[in-house]
Design goal:
Order of helices and strands: HHHHHHHHHHH
Oligomer: single chain
Structural class: mainly alpha
Strand content: under 5%
Helix content: over 70%
Shape: globular
Low-confidence stretches: none
Number of strands: 0
Length: about 220
């Protein structure tokens, strides 16, 4: 976990060094990381948000082309979710009972609550939350969500996730204050995004308690 956090804070340094050493292969590396984090449940630990921001910072330095980065990472995000969906649909039950226990049950349970609360919108909202980003399409596959609906939310989610974070790095990442406090900025974004989702999950859990009755809001 410490290594992952260190990579998150200094991702642009590691990726810039890689681009200097291996040139165009940096595009392949960025594609594979985003695809793996969104497409393979065992890769949920990869730093997707930090990577997008860092890719924008590197593009601003001129080491890589921002247009190619946006296109490739958008494709990687869409294909990753699609792969995860079909893994969940055709292999999910077998993975859950596997003796290797590659998937933690508590992560899956939290994602089930999240998906049950938000439905297809979970594919969009989940893009901005680590773990949820990886598990939501997997759960959607297990639940046999309609593939046309899945595709619609998948594209919207990738469009809402990849360009804003990547362009934020491109336009603001070289500002010294942003570079020095990126870890705090990232954590703040996670917390702000998570608040309504966590509250929704709490309300859903409470609604299942015997005798629970939701209080009407003012004006009803």
């Amino acid at each position: 976990m410490q290594e992952i956090f260190e990579f998150l804070i200094n991702a642009e340094d590691h990726l810039l060094e890689f681009s200097h050493q291996y040139g165009m292969w940096i595009y392949v590396l960025l594609f594979l990381i985003v695809y793996s984090e969104t497409g393979l449940v065992v890769m949920a630990f990869l730093p997707g948000d930090g990577l997008l921001f860092s890719a924008g910072v590197i593009a601003a330095s001129g080491a890589i082309d921002i247009e190619w980065v946006l296109i490739l990472l958008f494709i990687a995000a869409v294909l990753g979710n699609t792969s995860n969906f079909f893994i969940g649909r055709y292999f999910g039950d077998r993975l859950l009972v596997s003796r290797w226990k590659l998937i933690r049950q508590k992560d899956l349970d939290r994602t089930h609550l999240f998906y049950e609360k938000h439905g297809g919108k979970a594919l969009v909202l989940g893009r901005f939350l680590p773990l949820f980003r990886t598990f939501v399409p997997f759960v959607a596959g297990i639940g046999h969500m309609d593939f046309h609906s899945f595709n619609r939310y998948n594209f919207i989610g990738a469009l809402a996730w990849v360009p804003p974070l990547t362009l934020a790095g491109y336009f603001f990442g070289e500002i010294p204050w942003v570079q020095q406090n990126f870890g705090l900025i990232y954590l703040a974004l996670v917390v702000v995004t998570a608040i309504p989702i966590v509250w929704g999950a709490i309300k859903l859990g409470m609604s299942r308690l015997p005798g629970y009755k939701e209080q009407p809001t003012s004006g009803e």
